């Protein structure tokens, strides 16, 4: 599920020599270092590429100056992606969503820059920073799974400043159109006003749903990468 064609590897990312896709574990495995490192994620070249990716986020943020989320404020977003983290259900405006993808391996990095940064994931051959929404939102990530329940974790690719980022979630319910009056009422109610990056709380399918403030969330994502 791709929201238009907004997801693409940036020119800086393309400039990175993705040798792991040519001669490494995802290529023909002809790299002479592969025998020593077993997997490309253990190689200094791979780590250097990941560090360069994070430096790109920081550099682009510095060039932009103060954080300013370029979202169309005049457009009333009524379409929300519903997903779960731990025991909590959340809703995020689809305009900040690029894609929902299957769960990918997350490769940790030495000397992590922030507690929210989990590492990097390989998305179509490109290294993409992977963040923990549980950490950013201050949630309890534990969950009691009902025996026999079919739960399919997913990754959300979000359009952040400097390039896309990936966030793992425990479950995705789908995209739903919510009546604007319900959203306006949830925003005015002040419910969970103290919760991080939250516009309001509404009832959906018999459960409480936190409607996330995408502008605040994207700003927090940017800060965690710089």
From TrEMBL:
<keyword id="KW-0963">Cytoplasm</keyword>
<dbReference type="GO" id="GO:0007165">
    <property type="term" value="P:signal transduction"/>
</dbReference>
<dbReference type="InterPro" id="IPR039315">
    <property type="entry name" value="CheW"/>
</dbReference>
<dbReference type="GO" id="GO:0006935">
    <property type="term" value="P:chemotaxis"/>
</dbReference>
<dbReference type="GO" id="GO:0005829">
    <property type="term" value="C:cytosol"/>
</dbReference>
<dbReference type="Pfam" id="PF01584">
    <property type="entry name" value="CheW"/>
</dbReference>
<protein>
    <recommendedName>
        <fullName>Chemotaxis protein CheW</fullName>
    </recommendedName>
</protein>
<feature type="domain" description="CheW-like">
    <location>
        <begin position="77"/>
        <end position="223"/>
    </location>
</feature>
<dbReference type="InterPro" id="IPR002545">
    <property type="entry name" value="CheW-lke_dom"/>
</dbReference>
<dbReference type="InterPro" id="IPR036061">
    <property type="entry name" value="CheW-like_dom_sf"/>
</dbReference>
